[in-house]
Amino acid sequence: MGERGSAPAEFVLVSALLVALVLASMQVLLVGYVKQSLSSAATEGARWAALVDVEPEEAVVLTRELIVASLSPEHAKNIAVSRSMERGYPTAQVSVSTPFPALGLWSVGGTLTISAHAPLEYAR
How many domains does the chain have? Predict the structure, then answer.
């Protein structure tokens, strides 16, 4: 008589654990997607900024468009283009700072910063 009614209780406990595990896995995948999308947009912006006849503002616009297309305008607010030296070579650098997506795409604090470099092109 002690085992009677234990199946529904076990189902509730196991299903709650399973739901938590699935939601945590989805959150990890979402953070990876956001990081990859920002990295891809920053890399494309750096390649564009490294071209001879391109102004840095054009690279910012391209990076912003790519981020808005894949994520949201909230993630495309802080984009910076600069020149830097990477391993002794002059490069164009694009940095994107965005709120860290802690709960879905919403942030509860923290910043995710992605930087990308591309070697500068020189006119001959």
Answer: 1
